[in-house]
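When time allows, look over one protein, given below as sequence and tokens. The question is which stretches look regular and which look disordered:
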Amino acid sequence: MARWPARRTGSDSRHVVDDSTSVTRRRAREYGGRRRAELEAANQALATAHAEDKGWHRERLERAAREAFAGRSGASVRELQLVQVVDRPGTEDDQAVFRVITDHGSEYLHLLRHGDEWVPR
């Protein structure tokens, strides 16, 4: 004689829905974090490529960013990320934006171009 599966009660169905919802949320968080990191890396690569295309010297920019940051903070820089390049006609209005990462967090540092020098905004 064939046995039919037991009927699910409303309570059992709710647990199945709750479990699948939590799995979906967890996957979305994991994917979202990975996606944000990929987007940040792509933005950084674009900013670097744009700066190099315009003849800006990455070493000079980073040195200026480190000096400007040291002038206002005692924290040591773990990483510098060039996140934005503003290239207006001429050179006097050029700007570079770095994300400065330290052991205490991160902040943005804006540099302005004056001739061949980069100074904090």
Summary: Strands lie at 77-86, 95-102, 105-114, 117-120. The chain has a mean pLDDT of 79. Residues 10-120 form one domain.
